[in-house]
Amino acid sequence: MTEIATLARPYAEAAFKHAKQAGSTDGWADSLQFLSAVVGDAEMAAIVKNPKVGNDKLLQLLLDICQDQVNAEVVNLVKLLVENGKIGLLPQISKMYEQYKADDEGYVNVDLYSAYTLTKAEQTKYVAMLEKHLNKKVHAVVSVDKSLIGGIFAKAGDIVIDGSVRGQLHQLAKRL
Description:
Elements: H1 2-22, H2 25-40, H3 42-49, H4 55-66, H5 72-83, H6 90-105, E1 107-114, H7 120-134, E2 137-144, E3 151-156, E4 159-164, H8 165-175
Parallel strand pairs: 1-2
Antiparallel strand pairs: 1-3, 3-4
Helix pairs in contact: 1-2, 1-6, 2-6, 4-5
């Protein structure tokens, strides 16, 4: 995983710097997420990894799929990645780009898991608590994970806050 991050970082940094200068960080983020989903698809991943598919055919396939979804500058990135055999890095590039964008705009993306569906009031309460704890604006993606039994589990990059019953039981078991 570290190797993938090392390979993807220069592309993500260059893409973010270029998008920032052009004032199109949101457009680039959308395009990179779309391309990441395309390359991450199981059928497309098989095509990307197939050595019998040449770079020209792969590039044409990607351009046909993308058509109006990406702008000319993002197309240039796709061409560069295909030429260098690095198109498989797109999901990691997209993820790193999002992190650069979040750092630049002063917010943090948080994956928030709950054992049950949260009401809007509960979501607002938890987001406010996370903002206070992290000292940043929080963009939360809330998901339900029944295995938590109860409570909340939050993940913001490398930071993990485990307030779940499952986590507390695990800590108790470790102490015993």
